[in-house]
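Hi U.,

Before I forget, here's the chain from the pilot set. I'm dumping it here mostly so it's searchable later in email.
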Amino acid sequence: MAGVAFLLGIVALIADSFVVPQHVHATLCIRRFHEFLARSSAGFLAIGMLGGCWCAWKGSGRALPRSLFWIWAAVTVLPLTGVICSEALLLVSRFYPRFSHPIRHALRHSVFWHLGFWEWIGAVAVFVFLCAATFLIPAPEGLRTREVR
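Structure:
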């Protein structure tokens, strides 16, 4: 499941790089196609990372080092929690106008209110997730290199 989610996220990210953001004309019957592909890519990558965390939790200590789970959980759960809280505040401010003024006043000029901040946090999280996988997952027995004497 995690591998398929990563593959779909990568395909959506590559496809998104070819779509020019425009909001006037619909592309494939979707008005904000660039945004749709970007959110799809982020969602699939998040699902893949959560699946990887689940696999690391189940295999920690036996097939995978315990530190891998903790690194993966930190770079997956913390940014997702921030994005979910930010989006929840945005929804509350849109659907309950009396709550919108204090929320907007408190966060409007904050970095947490801007999508670009969460895009960069997500990019760093995916990078650290993949680096941890590269450096902490042991190589299979047949692929290990021999020591030079």
